[in-house]
Specification:
Ger(X)C family spore germination protein; 11 helices; GerAC_N; germination; single chain; lipoprotein; alpha/beta; 4-stranded mixed β-sheet; GMP Synthetase, Chain A, domain 3; 9-stranded mixed β-sheet
């Protein structure tokens, strides 16, 4: 009996220090912020925060495809970004957890004011990571943040949170993370670009009901740390070929309503030679691409397809260059090469003029396309 009493006393003594984790929170009793929208109106910062509950944030085998996913959006305002975000706490009912934020979206109004103050404020908060996606938008946040994916899947399955999935199939405007955008903004020779996201309402239907979906529809460009202009996706068609990260992008040749063929271009090898001649910046561009045949509408040889594709890519690049030139934007990032390789000359030119490019800046464009695969159907190929 004495031994039993001694053992019982030891067990009770061991349990006494375990008073519980008073500061811990049950995961189901927290509000999970997944996206932040930043606006600037009448001298105040307006913050929109998208919230999902734990069952929508966590991935598990019991998720029911097609079941409506509830989305909550909180709105705060204040003289600073921190004040506007903190004002949401007063009515949140539960503890807000920011560690699941995957996207920040900025309004045009905020971009015109400048993003540095907002970005510094958000990234001083320890729960929010540096490598989250960042977009600009012309849409209302109350519309943008309630968009679901196909089959009523969670917003986490939309292009706003997983743009890399779409980029792997259709490489056009490369999604960027916050740290990449800030690196561009602070680098003298590199033009800063911020992808823009919009709502497309006329493509998808669920039965007979129209279902809006998200799309990356263009990009904002910056002069210093303030937004300079916006360019649509179509205007930036040529810049996609200069992206080393390009996975897969289609082109029809020749351009127009009756193309001979459609090809998929991959594996770009892009190089720019920069120099200064007679006080002007001049550039020679060279590009190599592999191609696979996706569609063929008339009989044509492999050599002819390659020649037509090279001409179409060259024209794409020149067209985007001219459209950027009209808006004083270096869409091909030519100045970056001059800055990297000839920094002294770059600074000397910028002492005289703010924008270095003109219609004669591109001296030559050399494009080489290698058609590696004509598909399993060999008809009409000579």
């Amino acid at each position: 009996m004495k031994r039993r009493g001694l053992l019982l006393g030891l067990c009770l003594a061991a349990l006494l220090p375990l008073s519980g984790c008073w500061n811990s929170k049950d995961i189901q009793n927290m509000d999970y912020a997944t996206a932040i929208g930043l606006d600037y109106v009448d001298g105040k910062y307006i913050t929109y925060v998208q919230f999902l509950n734990f069952s929508n944030v966590g991935r598990n085998e019991t998720v029911q495809i097609g079941k409506e996913v509830p989305i909550w959006v909180g709105r705060g305002e204040g003289a600073t970004v921190s004040q506007s975000m903190s004002s949401i706490y007063a009515t949140s009912q539960m503890h807000i957890f920011w560690g699941h934020v995957k996207t920040i979206v900025c309004s045009e109004s905020l971009l015109k004011k400048g993003v540095e103050e907002a970005y510094n404020s958000i990234n001083r908060f320890g729960e929010i990571r540096y490598n989250i996606y960042i977009f600009g938008t012309k849409e209302k946040f109350t519309d943008l943040f309630i968009q679901k994916s196909i089959f009523n899947l969670s917003p986490l399955d939309t292009i706003m949170f997983s743009p890399e999935q779409i980029y792997a199939q259709r490489s056009f405007i490369m999604p960027l993370t916050g740290n990449q955008v800030i690196a561009q903004l602070t680098e003298p020779g590199e033009p800063a670009m911020l992808p823009s996201i919009s709502i497309v309402r006329d493509v998808w239907k669920e039965d007979k009901r129209s279902r809006p979906m998200l799309k990356i529809d263009g990009a904002y460009f910056f002069q210093g740390k303030k937004m300079q202009t916006w360019m649509a996706e179509e205007e930036l068609a040529g810049s996609r070929w200069t992206q080393k990260q390009l996975k897969r992008s289609l082109i029809s040749v020749p351009a127009g309503d009756h193309p001979y063929a459609t090809l998929v271009l991959i594996n770009p090898h892009y190089h720019v030679d920069a120099r200064v001649k007679d006080g002007k910046a001049r550039f020679d561009l060279s590009l190599q691409l592999d191609a696979t045949l996706d569609d063929l509408n008339r009989e044509v040889s492999v050599e002819e397809l390659e020649r037509l594709t090279e001409a179409a890519v060259r024209e794409d690049i020149m067209d985007s260059f001219r459209k950027g030139l009209a808006k004083q934007v270096d869409v091909l990032k030519l100045e970056e090469t001059l800055y990297r390789n000839h920094p002294k000359q770059w600074h000397l030119l910028h002492d005289k003029q703010e924008f270095l490019l003109d219609r004669d800046s591109i001296n030559s464009i050399t494009v080489k396309v290698h058609l590696r695969n004509t598909g399993k159907y060999k008809g009409r190929i000579r």
